[in-house]
TrEMBL record:
Domain TonB-dependent receptor plug residues, every copy: 130-214
Family annotation (Pfam families): CarbopepD_reg_2, OMP_b-brl_3, Plug
InterPro entries: Beta-barrel_TonB_sf, CarboxyPept-like_regulatory, OMP_b-brl_3, Plug_dom, Plug_dom_sf, TonB-dep_rcpt-like
Family membership noted in the UniProt record: Belongs to the TonB-dependent receptor family.
UniProt keyword terms in alphabetical order: Cell outer membrane, Membrane, Receptor, Signal, Transmembrane, Transmembrane beta strand, Transport
Organism lineage string: Bacteria, Pseudomonadati, Bacteroidota, Cytophagia, Cytophagales
Organism expressing this protein natively: Echinicola arenosa
Main location: membrane
Compartments it resides in: Cell outer membrane
Domain of life: Bacteria
Name of the molecule in the record: TonB-dependent receptor
Gene3D superfamilies cross-referenced by the UniProt entry: Carboxypeptidase-like, regulatory domain, TonB-dependent receptor, beta-barrel domain, TonB-dependent receptor, plug domain
Amino acid sequence: MPIKRFLLLFFFLTPFWTQAQINISGQIVNEEDREPLLFAQVALFEAGSENTITYTQSDENGKFTLDTKSGNYDIRVFLIGYENKKLENLAINEDKDLGQIALVSEQEELDEVVVQSSTIPMRTDVEGIVITPEQNLANVGGTLLDILRNTPSISVSDDGSISLRGSSGTNVLINGRNSSLTQNLDQIPASAIEQIKVINNPNARYDAEAEGGVINIILKKGENMGTHGGVELTYGTRNRLNTGARVNHTTAKYSVYAGYNYRDWKGQGERTTFREIYEDNEILNQTNQSNENSQNHNFNYGADYYFGKNVLSYQGVYNTGDDYENNTLYSNLSDGITDDLILQYVRRNIESESDDGYDNALIYERTFDDKNRELKISANNSYQNQYKIQNIDIFRNATEPLPENLNGQERAFTDEKRYTTVIQADYVHPINENVKLEMGLKSTFRKFDNDYQYYQFSESENDFVENTDISNHFLYKDQIHAAYFIYSRTSEKFDFTLGTRAEQTNVEGLLYNTNELNEQNYLNLFPSVQALYKLDDENSFKFTYSRRIDRPTAWRLNPFPDITDSLSVRRGNPNLQPEMIDSFELGHMVNFENASLTTNLFYRYVDGVLDYITMVEDGISYQQPENLNSGQSYGLEFIGIADITPWWNLNGSISLFQSRVDGSNLGEEFVSKGFAWNSKLTTDFKLPLDLTLQLVGDYESPEIEAQGRDFARYSMDATLLKNFLEDKLSLSVSVRDVFNTRNFGGYNQSDDFYQEFRAEWESRIALFSARYNF
């Protein structure tokens, strides 16, 4: 009897045991050419619910397998760049092969990708350039500024300021949002960046801020199903170190991610200045030698939660660090005719700076049955604090900073805080398959609080005494309230968008020392046009126009002087007005089998252009910003991408432009014009032994300013890479600025003086990097 019962129990339980052995298989392919798609995310749900049973991803042949028990299920397939696929209410009672599941490529309106090669770190579209930093080996171990230095149309000066097609006014965003963290781009590691988009002529969806356009920094987060991550280590000459790690876990219901980077960077440099004052026959020669050490920690983290047709996301960034710098300035002022010495001194400035900041954003997104309908609401708050201590020793009538020559001491404390809060809502509503409307509201609140305290040592009091004529406390606040509306229409041959953005600006600047309050309030309308004509499968033409504004920054408005060098003083101007810009672009994009070429004609007119003007008074040069009458620039740009052979590809750009600055409102000497051009080239070679060699070169010709020109700049980087363990592990060796030519310089000239500077930083460095992804 027991044996019969056991056999009977076995007979009934067998189906339940075998249910655990049921598997569902299939292959994910591209609907257009039926080619297999790897890394597609395949998730199994209970039929008609949001409860995830299991998930996997397709292999290199597009195939997948899911293990489950019998029942009714929905299957969903996700892959970036393709429309989501859903198979509903499948009755699974035994092993089932679903065969080929075809995904349809998304065709984003006005976002035509020119070339699809995964080995090329750049592509172009109707709006501008999209950069994938990880595919450019020259960025390994670097920062965001290193990426921008290798980006077409962008120039980075020695102080980290950015110009786009010759314009220094750019609006830098993080994940599409304004953030205080953009004040120090050298603290954001290259390894934390997923993508950069450069938009020369943004439409009404974007802020009208900035003459040159928008640079949008997209930080990495989790995307692939499952648990993934990576670690990396970079070590270089002068014991430079950059190390980091990242991890993400993603399911069909939620995703979480986090990354950390530590950077210990050292450098040294030298800056020389020559100035001749004609009337006084005075000649100034200065040499500033500097050593710097920077140690920074950077964290980025976030989570996404999916419920129904809703996504709730949190994105966060936190960084903290310390900078140490030692500057020694040697000054020699002499008579230009007799060569007699007028003044000689050494000024040593030892400074330390602590930085910390954060950016927090909460984002809600709603999807609809119509995939072209979208709702997104976000709120973010960011904060950046810089606290700097300067200890200055002065050695008058001396050539060396020796203790016995010390005869003056100064101290300075700078406490600078920046706050940015943004609340934004965007809605996209399709009228039909060809027409859609976009609209949105945005309010930005910014505050800049700079408290500078300056002390001089008093021998009579044997202590440091504050000099209230130099100490200053400046508070800057602004509010920008915006609304926009965009009408888009697409057809087989012709796409276009028409948009208008209204911005109400309220600015308030308070100088506590004098209780002087400066207020500005103004309303502006900013129209935009984008059009794309597709002549055939290979050729398309684009036209874009936008009206923009460049508001003076807090630093430019603060009237108090920076007297780091008592003979060369920099100060702000509280009476500055914003620039108003009209920007036009006409382009042609052509696709070949393994290459593409984008040609852009551009023209920009600036009313009330902001530029720094140098004046000499009593032997001291004062540099301050002024509003000039106007500025114009027009030019031609070529951007090419090509897979020349299976082992050789390259991408590059060349921009040529003519500029004119009219500052005749200040004097005829402030009228200047000239021609300039720049070029950047990146090329990869696949060598034997599975090695990859990448060379990156750039050249920037002299460029005009209101009173002079910048000098030409050029350099080349080289990197050798080898992958191991099915490309999970990569090792690389790189040399930045191979020929040690990356330096900066320029001159200013008027009827009264000539001034020239040259800066050489330690830019030729060697780096060894290791990266492992899992």
